[in-house]
Amino acid sequence: MEINWGPGPYGVTTTLRSTYPIERVVLFVAHHPTAVSRLLDVAPMVEEDPRVQVVFTVPDTSAVAGPTVDLLHRVGARLVPWRQARSQRFDAAVSAALGGLEQVHAPVLALAHGHGPAKMVRRASGDQRGPDAPRELYGAAASALVDAGRVIPAIVGVAHERIRDLVASVAPEAGPVTEIVGDPAFDRLRASMGRRAAYRRALGVRAGQRLVVASSTWGPNGLLGSAPDLPRRLAAELPRDRYRTVVVQHPAIKAWHGGRSVAAWLAPAQRAGAGVLPPEEGWRAALVAADVLVADHSSVTMYGAGIGRPVLLGAYPADEIAPDSLPAVLAARAPHLHPDAPLAAQVAAAVADHDGTLADTFAAALTSAPGDSMRLIRDALYRLMDLAPPSAPHRVAAVPVPRLTPDPGGLGAAGVAA
């Protein structure tokens, strides 16, 4: 769905037809559906203030611009075309990814859309290339933080001291504007722990069953890229009376391949009894509900480890991951799945042999400001807007009860004929 250029609650037309007493306009820059998920955690911090208008834009350089626009339309966001957004001035801007932000006419708060930099930029191939060179990390690339002799963001918001130090090492000029703002995704996850029973009911987990969450990031080295048939095998091989399998997929998978194709590829797993969550939301509820994760090097896995969920690593591309990152730590301490061996024994062993100290290790490494991200990010945003924040604090909301995608072939949530 395209966005039409036109007047709206931004630029010189901000108050043209305004009902509310708008004093500031904030631009949320959404590069892809995963960034939308993080921005929707952050937007409510200012959206409830009638003095503040929030609008969204999608850079036209995004490889998945169309699906990102469609997602924002579905959640009711007020959208501005990228070309128009680049020509307007805003009081502040927020992004959950880097790239193109030097074109935004506003002080930018740059946030992460995952647990932090860990994946190295893929090395280019080809006979005409020169020798190998050090690779930058996604989310901490100097070229995305500094442009034409200026630091692009007004504030680089990071979750942890180690990420602040990393940013300062790769882009020293950005060090003075890098602030610890916590991790809103992890804070919402922890705020949702008390709803475990409700989430398990919604995911079709019966009494006496363990919930196995199969989680995949995008790309050929994620769980689904490495073993497309694994969700079906889990649902088929694990005893139905003792296990329930639910699949979590990275939003970029659907955005790139198309929802219809992905649904077709996951249909055999659903027919075998697995549940499938929509990629946009539901993953945090699934982590709270889970008894064990069969997963890869993604942020979902790191968050799961941070709340104490046993992890069985089904995919780990060591040559893509920074050796001192959280995924590398997990890969050294968690069991790795052997796809040619029976799955049931491996899943049971992952639960029985789980190292209970991992939760504290990962929780402490995910955020240096546990439970405080909403206050810190809101304060940073209002500071950029030069506006006094509301006196009432913004509470950390639990994530909603998940809704599974429809089962094919008349199968019910528990995988039996309806």
Q: What descriptors fit this protein?
A:
single chain, 418 residues, alpha/beta, Rossmann fold, six-stranded parallel β-sheet, five-stranded parallel β-sheet, 35% helix, globular, disordered C terminus
Do you know the CATH architecture of the largest domain?
3-Layer(aba) Sandwich
How many separate domains?
2
Strand order of the largest sheet: 2-1-3-4-7-8
Provide the gyration radius in Å.
22 Å
- Overall pLDDT metric: 90
Strand content: 5-15%
Give the CATH topology of the largest domain. Answer: Rossmann fold
- Structural class, by secondary structure, is alpha/beta
How many strands in all?
13
Count up the helices. 18
User: Percent of residues in helical segments?
Assistant: 25-40%
**Biggest sheet character:** 6 strands, parallel
Q: Identify the overall geometry.
A: globular
CATH class of the largest domain: Alpha Beta
Q: Give start-end ranges of low-pLDDT stretches.
A: 410-418
Straight-line distance between termini:
36 Å
Protein name: CDP-glycerol:poly(Glycerophosphate) glycerophosphotransferase
Organism: Murinocardiopsis flavida
